[in-house]
Give the backbone structure.
Amino acid sequence: LEGESARLQLILSTASIKYETGTVSLSDLLRLENRIAMLQSDQYRMELNLEALYHEMNSLLGLAMEDDLNWPDSVPDVENFQQYDYSAVDVSDFPLARKSFIQVEAARFTEELSAERLRPSFEVGATWSVIDKPSIEMGAVEEGGDGLMIFVGVNLPLGYSGSGYRNNSAQSSATAVELSYLQKLDDLFSRSADLNATIAGLINMYFSYETEIVPNLEVILSLAESEWMTGVMSLKDVIEVISELRAAHLEMISIYSQIVVSSAKLKELTGDTTERGEFL
């Protein structure tokens, strides 16, 4: 945008001279001055948008607000964002997936613990006691002696008792958590695939503007300027070409911003906590 502004100032100087000679109308001259003012306003607006973009990236990457001061003066090239390919990353390794899997393991443990309480259990024990009256069964030979008591017990669950109900509830809960986990994996896979596709599409659009649309408009503008100087084209036509070029540059900036934000969201989704320097 700074290059366009300088170019417009040069055209304005020439147009002012032509106005003095009567070859440029006052309306065209005022229209050109208005375009320059609009371009300066767009440049200021884009600077504010860039600052807001830095804040958004800081938030997405978990960085402190004061870290804004460490941002580089020049933004990274679009090629920088092509090196991050997360399409091969296992979705189950994403932070949200790992968190969901912990809940699955907890539900499974609860289910197993509940199932254990439904199985028959055996109890074997022994105690010493003082025997008041001797008996052969107790193995005592005299009154007041010590006797060993051995007991064996079997606990059998009684169908749909409280334990049975709790086990069924635990099974249902574990199944629901596992289904939720599988749905979470599907959602994460879909989101990461969408972000990868979005970034790839935006990069292609950016390169299309950078290598074709903007260069072509710059050539057209150069020809328009030459034809205007020779009287073949009017200043109004030149201003229209300038407007198209300005719109193309603004679209490139918008596409770049979307690439940066989408890349930050993808890094956040995949759990990539890369330091900002490496990201840029």
Notes: Confidence is low (pLDDT under 50) at residues 69-74, 134-145, 274-280. The longest strand covers residues 121-130.
